[in-house]
Fold:
Amino acid sequence: MTQTSQQIQESAAERTLHVAMELSKTSWKLAFSDGGVRRPRVVGVVARDWPQFDAAVARAKQRLGLPSEAPVRSCYEAGRDGFWLHRALAARGVANVVVDAASIEVNRRQRRAKTDRLDAIKLVTQLVRHHRGERVWSVVRVPAEADEAARHLHRDLDVLKSERRAHRMRIQSLLFTHGIDQQVGRTFLTTLPNLRQWDGQPVPASLPARVVREHQRLETVEQQIRALEKERQTLLATAQTKAVAQARVLAELCGIGPTSSWVFAMEFFGWRQFANRREVAAAAGLTPTPYQSGASPREQGISKAGNKRVRTMMIEIAWSWLRYQPESTLSKWFWTRFGTGGSRHRRVGIVALARRLLIDLWRLVEFGVIPDGARLKTS
Structure:
């Protein structure tokens, strides 16, 4: 064997097959590239048909002149499929990355061609650039299955609480159309037969029946909320996982209750590893986004690119922190910096307080550093 042919074989052995997946409910578009100058090849396969997927990968290696044992790297956009596909690809020996769709660069022309085929080609081109070390997009951190499963409790609670508000507002709206302003409390059903319309006449017979059915659905939601809150309370008292331990530590601070501490631990601190405070703020979308073009600089507000649940809860806890931790260093800083301004000035300042407080909470759960001047519930 000549030296030239040996170098060609060694080069082929080092080459990698890049696969970009454009997903839909019934089919997947796969774009293949070996990182060379040739235009990527796109084929379609039936969604979740792994034998067909493996066959398409094998054919792509053969057409591109890659050995059968050549490594495969893939990517797809984060979306409805979640992370099961990432785990399935990893189990097949594929090095996959999940891409934040909002971070992908696009042509800013008003009109541009867009199809699944073109999207797949663009994805695989950027995948090649990504593995060459270029920074072309943001990669989504994939949680472990146990960490992902731990999110269901508080997310289900959020859905149920939204349903509870919807049922109550629907009952009140039904009554309000007849001139009745009645709160929906524990004794609501006992007062329902005595309600009268705006002119003192009894309400139509069909209205109380519908209101009772709506109230029954409300009671079902209330029971499920109580059951989940009891389950969360039991886990906080007995579970020995890292995330639950962090939730216990956070709940010891005045101004932070079981709901917020659970969300912070399960959504944020319990499964993410942060290198510094900048990563903490960026992961919650609380970092500023300046815009400067020539001599016209301006601030665009926070990025809102991170975890929406954590960001929303953090703003609420920042207001709570001012109330229950008035002697803390953060509260004093807020009132010194923003207390003399108007309400809009304080709303801007509360975001800055939320960012600083989130960083302090990270230092608490990671290094045991209590925020300066903060008061514990046990003290």
